[in-house]
Write a sequence for this structure.
């Protein structure tokens, strides 16, 4: 998830296991799984990608989470609003 920090990560999607907290990046092996929890504080579009960006961009291994809500200029504000609206919004 580009632009977000995971509050909790459950490696291997094991709900009963010990969680990792405040994680920026987590590894998910081929055929593996993970569960992540996070709260988005500002509206925008967040992309989640495979860190092999060639797979993400060339083969479509990318997803988008669109978050709606009130703007929070106390937390985030774009220096170039026109660019932010055309791009990620974050």
């Amino acid at each position: 998830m580009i632009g977000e920090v995971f509050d909790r990560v459950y490696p291997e999607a094991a709900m009963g296991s010990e969680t990792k907290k405040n994680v920026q990046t987590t590894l998910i092996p081929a055929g593996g799984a993970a569960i992540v929890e996070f709260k988005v504080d500002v509206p925008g579009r967040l992309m989640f990608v495979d860190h092999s960006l060639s797979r993400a961009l060339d083969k479509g291994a990318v997803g988008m989470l669109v978050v709606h809500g009130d703007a929070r200029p106390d937390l985030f504000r774009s220096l170039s609003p026109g660019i932010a609206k055309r791009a990620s919004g974050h």
Summary: The CA atoms of residues 47 and 64 lie 5 Å apart. Residues 53-59 form the longest helix (7 residues).
